[in-house]
Design brief:
Blueprint (H helix, E strand, L loop, with lengths): L4 E7 L6 E4 L8 E8 L8 E8 L7 E9 L2 E9 L6 E4 L11 E8 L7 E10 L7 E10 L8 E5 L9 E7 L3
Antiparallel strand pairs: 1-12, 2-11, 3-8, 3-12, 4-7, 4-11, 5-6, 5-10, 8-9, 9-10
Amino acid sequence: MPSTYSLIASATPTTGTSVSFTSIPDTYTDLVLKISARSNYTSGYITTLYVGFNNNSSNLFSYLGMYALGGTLGLLSGAGGNGAGDLYMPTENSNITSNLFGSAEIYISNYKASTYKQFSSNYCVENNNTANYYALGTTSSAFGSTSTVSSIEVYLGDGNFVSGSSLYLYGIKNS
């Protein structure tokens, strides 16, 4: 990591549906959340991963993105209270390669500003079995709150995190 990145907190969940990062200091310019995760959900290839801020679902997220899901390309847009658009993580379905983890990065710029918070997310899930299934995408979003982001919640749509999952929250300074 560049010297301007500082690790704020990390989590390595072995079970449970969510991870929270609380008491985020206001000493940085931007935040970056790096995720490597897998769910124990046994239906389908993937599950949705949601990210929220400040335990607040009343401030809607607006998002615009593009994705490739198993060979289908598409655009997505809208607003919703569930979090940073739809990010995907692999499941424990026997159709997915064993011990394969999905990755995601969420960049939250100017998280202390008294304006809506802009953030972007990128994710990738692959399957090395014969099905050759994958999901990847990028999304730009806005969190409709003028409050400083002081906590981040990450939760799975289905199943629990499995051992080997990891989440790292970094602060970025402008100098």
